[in-house]
Amino acid sequence: MKTTIVIPTYWRGPVSEAPICSLESDFLYDHATPLDSEGTLGRALDSLSILEAGEGFSVAVVAASTRVEIKQAVELKVQSIIAQYDYDFPLLMIGPDELTFWRRRLATAGMAEYDQFLSLDGYSNIRNMCLLAAVLTEADVAILFDDDQVYEVPAYLKKATEFIGRRHEGSDVTGIAGYYVNENGSVKVPPADLEWQRLWGNREAMNQAFGIIAGPPRLKPTPFVFGGNMVIHRSLFEKVPFDPLVPRGEDIDYLLNARFFGHEFLLDNELWIRHLPPPRCAPPWFQIRQDIIRFARERAKIATQHGMDGIKHVTAADLDPYPGRFLKDDFHDLVLLTSMEMASNYMEAGMEEDARECIVNVAISKAESRVKGDPFGDYLAFQRRWEEFIRVLPTIGIWSAVNGTD
């Protein structure tokens, strides 16, 4: 079974220009690496050497930047890191130069309308480029792996591909969710230590959900996935794309989208990797804001579902306890209580501008709580275009260029 490990890597401007991340960036990622540091990509690539290859595997690195004007610098930086190592596996890099070339191919073929899928801007678009990398390397299985993680289990690939593409308890297995083990050996997130965190309740809900990791059976249905430890079969990634309107939490949103099409992710409680993230970049109020938009989009897709052949009805309760907690009718109340408490904390600390942003979050939540248009239908239209794009790819010549036969 041909496997491609895909690694998105996120970069921002040098520390010498801005010692902390800037919210003025075009795109903000949780822990983008400064250009004047080596970051974690080399460490992640090094960890691939412990994997027992079996049938072998390919690797694709997808290079993303927080600002448009540094895209070229990021491409050069990632190329310089990759060039430091000799690898025993084929390695493809996807950056802005590759996308420019592919867009020209599309235009020459009279298919420029598909260049909407060639984007390195925002989490979901980048994840779609990861899926595209699997298609371009003719993989049967895509393994999503982030650059702030390391492999420590030599048999990881054997475990990852043991069930994928096969039948299990009467159903096809098209998506496997692994999990993270933190530096301290825990699989759970730290408990809330501030009142606004307790009101928000995401940590409690996540830890409750993570309870399924322990104990038998090895495979079980899951309401969550980790974006850096997802195993996706070709029959799923060629059909279901990530939703570009979701600003973060795109991994769990992908699970929702997959369920619409009858694909269920199964958690494998033996499939783990070590998670070693740098400190988050964005302030808490900004992360809450992205969650407001993210969960509003998911609630809207759930609310506007309509009966169609091949489409499965999904409810918020199907995704309890996480993310189900944030997909129900009381979501705005959660935002209001959390934001007011957070604003109070900021005011006590003399951070008036941050406090104002918390109040803005309340207004955004109120506006987003009203479903407008047909979000579910809009996603279906995007999904149909994705399927068309995957079908026409072999006719364009991108594949031959990627595989070195052009």
Number of domains: 1
**What count of helical segments does DSSP give?**
14
Query: What's the average pLDDT?
Result: 92
- State the helical fraction: 40-55%
CATH superfamily: Spore Coat Polysaccharide Biosynthesis Protein SpsA, Chain A
Structural class: alpha/beta
CATH class: Alpha Beta
CATH fold-level name: Spore Coat Polysaccharide Biosynthesis Protein SpsA, Chain A
Order of helices and strands: EEHEHEHHEEHEEEHHEEHHEHHHHH
Label the overall shape.
globular
Brief rundown of the structure:
It is built from 14 helices and twelve strands. With 406 residues, the chain is of the alpha/beta class. The chain has one domain (3-281, 378-402): Spore Coat Polysaccharide Biosynthesis Protein SpsA, Chain A, CATH 3.90.550.10.
Characterization of this structure:
Strands 1, 2, 3, 4, 5, 6, 9, 10, 11 and 12 form a ten-stranded mixed β-sheet that branches. The protein has one domain (3-281, 378-402): Spore Coat Polysaccharide Biosynthesis Protein SpsA, Chain A. Helix 10 (284-303) runs parallel beside helix 12 (352-368), helix 10 (284-303) packs across helix 13 (375-396) and helix 11 (331-348) packs antiparallel against helix 12. 40% of the residues lie in helices and 15% in strands. The chain is α/β, with parallel strands linked by helices and 406 residues long. The radius of gyration is 21 Å and the shape is globular. The longest helix is centred in the C-terminal third of the chain and has 22 residues, at 375-396. The mean pLDDT is 92.
